[in-house]
Amino acid sequence: MKPQLDITPLNEGSELGLKKPLLISGPCSAESEEQVMETARRLAKQGNIHLLRAGIWKPRTRPNCFEGIGSIGLKWLKQAGKEVGLPVTVEVANVKHVYEALRMGIDILWIGARTTVNPFAVQEIADALRGVDIPVFVKNPVNPDLPLWIGALERLNQAGIKRLGAIHRGFSTHGESKYRNNPHWEIPIELMRRHPELAMVCDPSHICGRRDLLQAVAQKAMDLNFDGLMLESHINPSKALSDAKQQVTPERYGEIINSLVMRRTATNDEVAQGSLEDLRATIDGIDREVIEVLAKRMLIASEIGQFKKANGITILQPKRWDAIIRERCNLGKIEGLTEEFMTDLYNAIHKESIRHQTAVMNNTTAVVAEAVKKQG
Ligand code: PEP
Ligand code: MN
Q1: Of the candidates 244, 227, 260, 255, which has an alpha carbon nearest to the alpha carbon of residue 27?
Q2: Domain limits at 360?
């Protein structure tokens, strides 16, 4: 099924004053009236903020810890937004949250990563929002599953929500990783390619899980032409009741935002734009050559397939494959190509090569079957 989204820019039909990059900040969790208010005041002082966030109901991994302050926090957040002149956003995970947030006049809703994974929950939220004109952001599901992310956006869209955005917050990992959630940048990039009209925000806080990586991830998102950033901030980060390791003070938030180099997708300088076009034309030519060479390689693979078939040899030769990947990684290293890239590249080439050889083998099977059939 081809995904279809009918999107209206977030700002249309409202006074939200959202810009690009759309800058969102506030605490992981609302903890007290003073904390929400002081965060808002100190963030507003930084200037670079368009939308104030706070978690009200927190989807925690395990019970018996702080699971959010609950509905009372909506009032604090709305009040804080009013005082500093900013629209506000909260996470909703069920129908009750939706009703309470709407009753309190919350300006924008977001669906969290642990909710996006569940189509039943997303559908219930979408149904509760039928007929309501409010922007909604959908965080990626915790697992690296693009159709599931798109499916959640489609459910909301089909319920009439047109001002839709996506938030990239990384994907759960197992084992050692420098990130709390692996960014898998290729997934939001593919979503942007399929739906360029969708506002795409990056949440470096939940990707990094630690303060020292935030700036680099935020810069990367800007370089990838994301539409905005969501960064958690707290008046006393290390004392935060949730996500203490990744929150920064409002002042540090200001520093991070100010340090970002904002690049454009094109330049007005015709000479510079011309050189860029030339380089791109060279890349296009090289890519055509790469494809021709790969096709040539696959033709040889098919020939090898014929030979293996004729001599009863298996397609996969683990020793030969091991030698190829090691030798190619070494060659790549000499050319300045990373081992990770060479391994991914050769895994893809090998997969395609096996596909070609299997086709050769299968043809034979088909021919044999045909002959057997003819013989009756
Ligand atoms: C959050 O933004 O505080 C949050 C819980 O995020 P996620 O759904 O990305 O884990
Ligand atoms: Mn958080």
Answers
A1: 244
A2: 270-375
